[in-house]
Specification:
Blueprint: E1 14-19, H1 23-34, E2 40-46, E3 50-52, H2 57-62, E4 71-73, H3 74-81, E5 84-87, E6 90-94, E7 99-102, E8 107-109, E9 112-115, E10 120-121, E11 130-131, H4 135-149, E12 156-161, H5 165-181, E13 187-193, H6 204-216, E14 220-223, E15 227-231, E16 234-237, E17 242-244, E18 247-250, E19 254-255, E20 273-274, E21 287-289, E22 294-295, H7 304-323, E23 338-341, E24 347-351, E25 354-358, H8 359-380
Helix pairs in contact: 1-3, 1-7, 3-8
Length: about 400
């Protein structure tokens, strides 16, 4: 037992509010459920009972996973951790008086707060098309649009804007999904990006492999010019080219939720919460942040792998902050493994400049993603194998 606990036994419980059920927060919930802390009164604010795992999104879209197999039972985790659950989004925060506001207008007071609310596409919000994030809204919208597309005439044209890992995997996933959805209607997929090559942050071999695979499957990358303007049914590129599309999917660089700008928290140029090595806000020491919404001292891309690795450190530091212990530093890896699905039972692995491809890589990715989701669902008492119904 930690030495500092005896000094806080007589104090009122510290009110810890978790905002969002992202990849780091599900680990916080699991850790607090596994080792309960009487000195902490826990609250979780999240819009849905189940939270999607981003790594499984392409597999879900392609039809390899059910909704319950790509989502984590946040409600069950909250119950196991003894947390009060508020099923709504946060829309405001006053860190000077320690008060969170939800979309229903409810105000929640806290002593300690942690943000793990993800990010939004740099473009897409307020423009024609479907932003990939937040994932829960994306999946609902895609299902509706594809259902409507069955009744259309002529070839169906889908434009995926963004040539990073998310855009490339989604293009492959749609290629697998569309034949089943469109009932014989012809279709075309375009992958659009301003970089001169796809996957500009991955190894040259992976870029060559996946460019070749895209073209062999009939997906021609439209690269080297940014989207200047988006209108209903078309995109206008900076080089003057116009692209007509029935549906536009935005999978581009991230931006922070706009309501953070009104909080007074220290934010970086992109609106993300600036944190120290312990994942604590630079301006308000009783506020923590993890995942996409956090701006690390040593910046990293907005990738789920970092949120997953932050989880254990965040859980330890929130417990320590509540009870008076010392904080530990999060040390993000300088290189990280990317497992990129091509939607056909194969995948590409990329790390340290090494690129490997095959069905065995997909089996590795599939095992890894299923294991992550099922670990939390089993702990929450909600096995994906027993819970196959429902949408995200």
């Amino acid at each position: 037992m930690l030495k500092y606990r005896s000094s806080v036994k007589s104090r009122p419980p510290v009110r810890l509010c978790l905002v969002g059920a992202g990849h780091a927060h599900v680990e916080v919930l699991r850790a607090l459920a596994e080792r309960p802390e009487p000195g902490i009164a826990l609250t979780l604010v999240t819009p849905h009972e189940r939270t999607p795992y981003s790594g499984s999104l392409p597999g879900y879209l392609a039809g390899f996973y059910t909704a319950s197999q790509m989502t984590i039972d946040a409600k069950g985790l909250a119950r196991r951790a003894g947390a009060r659950l508020h099923l709504e989004r946060a829309v405001g925060l006053d860190p000077d008086v320690c008060r969170l506001e939800t979309e229903s207008g409810e105000r929640l007071d806290y002593d300690l707060l942690s943000l793990d609310i993800g990010s939004l596409p740099g473009r897409g919000a307020g423009e024609p098309g479907i932003p990939v994030k937040p994932i829960d809204r994306f999946t609902e919208t895609v299902d509706r649009i594809l259902a409507d597309a069955r009744s259309g005439n002529g070839p169906f044209r889908l434009a995926v804007v963004g040539t990073g890992a998310a855009g490339v995997e989604l293009a492959f996933a749609f290629l697998t999904r569309l034949p089943r959805e469109l009932g014989g209607r012809q279709f075309e997929i375009l992958l659009i990006g301003e970089e001169e090559e796809i996957l500009s942050d991955r190894s040259p071999r992976t870029r060559v492999r996946l460019t070749r695979t895209l073209r062999s499957k009939g997906i021609e990358p439209v690269i080297g010019s940014r989207v200047e303007r988006a209108e209903a049914g078309r995109l206008i590129l900076a080089n003057g080219r116009e692209i007509v599309a029935d549906t536009i999917v935005w999978a581009v660089t991230s931006r922070a939720p706009s309501w953070l700008e009104r909080t007074g928290l220290s934010l970086d140029a992109g609106g993300f919460v600036e944190v120290d090595k312990a994942l604590r806000s630079l301006s308000h020491p009783n506020v923590f942040a993890a995942g996409d919404v956090a701006s690390l001292p040593d910046p990293r891309p907005k990738a789920g792998v970092f949120a997953v690795r932050e989880g254990p450190i965040l859980a330890r530091n929130l417990r320590a902050a509540a009870l008076g212990g010392s904080l530990r530093s999060f040390r993000p890896q300088s290189d990280w493994l990317n497992l990129l699905s091509t939607g056909d039972g194969r995948a590409v692995a990329d790390k340290w400049g090494i690129s490997l491809e095959g069905a065995w890589v997909w089996r590795w990715k599939d095992w890894n993603d299923r294991r992550f989701v099922e670990r939390y669902n089993r702990f929450a008492g909600s096995s994906a194998e027993r819970n196959r119904s429902g949408r995200v």
